[in-house]
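User: My instructor asked us to take a sequence, write out its structure as tokens, and then describe one feature of it. I'm not sure where to start. Here is the sequence I was given:
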Amino acid sequence: MLRSSRIRSLSSVIIPATSRLLSGATFKQSPVCVRLVCGHTPTHTDSCRRLLHCTASQDSFRTCGAAPFSMASGSNGRESLRQPKHTNRLNNEKSPYLQQHAHNPVDWYPWCQEAFSKAKSEDKPIFLSVGYSTCHWCHVMERESFEDEEIGKILSDNFVCIKVDREERPDVDKVYMTFIQATSGGGGWPMSVWLTPDLKPFIGGTYFPPRDLGRRPGFKTVLLRIMEQWQDNREALESGGERVMDALRKATVISAHSEQTLPPVLDVAHRCFQQLAHSYEEEYGGFSDTPKFPTPVNLMFLLSYWSVNRASSEGAEALRMTLHTLRMMALGGIHDHVAQGFHRYSTDSSWHVPHFEKMLYDQAQLAVAYINAYQVSSERLFADVSRDVLHYVSRDLSHQSGGFYSAEDADSLPTTESSKKREGAFCVWTAAEIRELLSNTVEEATGGVTQADIFMHHYGVKEQGNVQPDQDPHGELQGQNVLIVRYSVELTAAHFGLSVNKLTEVLASAKAKLADVRRSRPPPHLDTKMLSSWNGLMLSGFARVGAVLGDKTLLQRAEQTARFLRKHLWDEERQQMMHSCYQGENMEVEQIASPIAGFLDDYAFVVSGLLDLFEATHTVCWLQWAEELQHRQDQLFWDAQGSGYFCSDPSDPTILLSLKQDQDGAEPSANSVSALNLLRLSHLTGNQEWMQRSQKLLTAFSDRLTKVPIALPDMVRGLMAHHYTFKQIIICGQPDAEDTASLIACVNSLFLPYKVLILADGNTEGFLYQKLPVLSSLIQQEGKATAYVCQDFSCALPITCPLELRRFLLE
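Assistant: Let's start with the prediction itself. The structure tokens for your sequence are:
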């Protein structure tokens, strides 16, 4: 992906060429809402607040659905009952986002060879629109422009229109978002890009209003101007598109040079810490002012940094920053106190008013961050939040076959009689609603107060609503309350003369009543697409939390997910991952006619999840599959010349840039995850080639790690692992024995980011003993389960006592 310095240098090449395209119009190439800081933060806060993250292979040549673009008359009844007036090819797609556009008066195509061929044969430019099903501003642009008959006709008559779900085709999204970032300095969704028939972009933006607003161009104006320029200045557009792509190819190269070595680990780690500390917000935690994102990759780095710097002031500060941030998030409105789980981000610095969308990848990473905080602090809040996140995912984001859905939307109908959706309608409360629901008197409390009085005090509920106007630019939350914990349970209990236990009981009862009412409200849209990558992240969440808490139910759910991935998202014949599968009308798991082959994220995140599952359950088949997937990942995505992994199949002719993700954002970069995967595999299988490949990968990103380590905190963790050396913690014992379980529980209770845990069960003919001959020399002492801690090809003296093992591991 592009770096900021490269964006500045590219601007002098790209922007003049594309801005000339629109000369004579009253706007620049970059429309309103395009400029986001780091791809997330808009400059136009009022109009763009919810724009933020509303943050292939031969199978790319998919055959589009056979249904032609059609128009049919229909009634004007409610949307769920009326016959649609228009139906286009997207009606045959399974992506929930594409299905949302199946009845636009636009001749939409999915990303497929038929669309590309049409553009060439009819000599038309391509209009590419990229978004996802839970993106607020994608919905706005659809309602304003794509459902407009006049605009729909302009689009259909003059362009080949392609609609892409960015979660279904991240390879397409990355290429054209790179273009948008290079030409505007920012990006976001919906993404609107115009391409030549050869798929080369020549102009783009994000959200456009439908009609001109003062000096702000409307979408219709943009379309008419592009049509004019395509007719009059075709050669300039095509040559400009070629220059753009040439510049981007050069600017996005990430490669290891022959003289390069691993970057200086201690310097890089300390610089990453300093950069995070500089951006840290003291009062409420987090790493920006507003909007404020959870950024679990930052928290995971800080905990790892603390683990190897425990005696230093910097280490102590890293721990303080992490725990404070996690506490403030857990108490804030970004945390759903009624139905669990975390919303996407906070619009204010205090984590109070969120953007209400819920993403699977956030739940997965935050569950791990909270359980790691529990390992470090033994603070029960962190374990409870981690468990609650998984409870939410199990209840609301789970398919019966074991997979996980992608997201819940922010918008929903306030009531069953409503016709217009509002953000947060499913989650917010008026004071009157709460007083009516929680009207019973709490006899043990002083002053004859009701359950509502206690609940409203504790969660900051106000009669006039607790959302400030500047956090509600569209007036959708007027008079509403977003629950946020204002007092500790001790203070609230003392205020009402209750014991802590009684207060906890009162609050739990109140939340259960509110949850029942919420279930009767119209639910937000659920994106039921199931992605290998995000399911891999969630697999890690269930495996890690289950291991730390010793919860067999969570571990069984993790194993169910692994079986789901193997059954529905692994093509045994082709030996490759599939990127996505879908929920059918009867709840069955379905695939599209030409399944989308897995991307780098799919392999890396699933391998990581399988390694976590193996260490949690000691079931060898998960390690074997992880090794198999890693081999396949290397074959498909490894850059043999420059090292590191490409995001997608570099041989796909429809993907014009071979990119290597060089930023850990809402999700970690797959290269960052792979750096640790390779190291773990080398210590679990004894294959030193994995370690060497990890070193080569890190060397390829050496410049980035040295100059801007804050961009890759997860990769810095991988770099640190090479310096501090992994521990192999080997437990020799019978799998079902109590003493074996006690030693394993001891290891799992500690935050040890640079270790692998192996159960040596005495099966000398098994996979592990064949891979790690050292296991045959390690035996139980006096018939007791025995722990060996090995490092740098030597093992410490055997330990049979869990307390002694704990002391040794914390030294």
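For the description part of your assignment, you could build on this observation: The domain at 265-398 is CATH 1.50.10.20 (Glycosyltransferase). Try explaining in your own words what that tells you about the chain.
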